[in-house]
# Entry
Amino acid sequence: MAVALFDTASPLRALRPQIDAAIARVVDSGRFILGPEVSAFEDELAAYCNTRHAIGVANGTEALTIALRSMGVGPGDDVVVPSFTFYASAEAIPPTGARPVFCDIDAQTGCATAETVRAALTPKTKAVIAVHLFGNVAPVAEIAALGVPVLEDAAQAMGSRCDGGRPGALGQAATFSFFPSKNLGCFGDGGAITTDDDEIAERARTLRFHGWGDSGSYEHVGYNSRLDELQAAILRVQLPHVDTWARGRRAAAGHYLQAGLGELVTLPAPTAGSQPAWHLYVVRHERVDALAEGLDRAGVQARGYYRTPVHRQPAMVTFAPAASLRATDDVARTHLALPMSPVLDAEQAAEVVEAARAALG
Ligand SMILES: *Cc1c(COP(=O)(O)O)cnc(C)c1O
# Structure
């Protein structure tokens, strides 16, 4: 039997009547932009994350740009960001006028640490983007203790937890993506910013709507970057199920462990005190190509996501660091995402592990 890399359809199947009703409600209302569904979703997301504010925006990339600008990042500033992440984590920085400065990660967790961030600090560092990669929770408090404001890129970490709370409430502000494959996905593009800071929230609300402020005039050059009513209504149906789905993802990781995956490959290590809602289950092996080929032969989908780290992408070479990012290059070369979803069961996990065992001989 084939095992897919992810399964977004199965968890949604049971919610279909409620989703249909939510869509019909919006269509009947005739309100499609910044109406009651977006307001209600923002309140519900803020309550879920335990933050004072949530602001819906058009996608997770613009959420980062708008959050950085709302935190006061602009021309002449530096923003530290890990290179081993989805491209958008860094791509969102230059539109603010600031420069991305790439830092390394810890190979075991996939996340930046206080040490890797410290090595990248400059006199111009205005903020650090802590990426909760693959659902693992970056050590935000330790990074913030360096004395720089932290923006969490929580695009992959909806449903994760740590001793300090949930992603979304750990830094000065945080951003989410609701791209359909994420842990909480809408039926198109969507994103959000969460924060406890009233001023950052106010500025983000202004920037997402062309810079239109309370003064009744255009106060900034902003964006047309709004979450729409249909997406908000669909997200409201799903949000109450995020924790159940997160438990399913953690259970799937447990199935892999039980089936002996750790004897074959290096497993991802949760950061201290964290319970990741694994968005992707990314293992490492020196013979990753042989592993990928063997899995493919057995009908198991697997994929290397960030084979070329961001600082080596053509658009980012002008920002590439002088010193090498050892762990980044190493993990980029050896990582492989295995099937992961809230409904991946013990049988499927055993099948993946058997295929991996055969592949690695
Ligand atoms: C998906 C993702 C983004 C961008 O989100 P979009 O909604 O696709 O713009 C940013 N950062 C990370 C880590 C992501 O995984």
Summary: Residues 59-61, 85-86, 88-89, 131, 153, 155-156, 177, 179, 189, 191 surround pyridoxal-5'-phosphate (CB under 6 Å). The chain is about 35% helix and 15% strand. The radius of gyration is 20 Å. The chain has a mean pLDDT of 97.
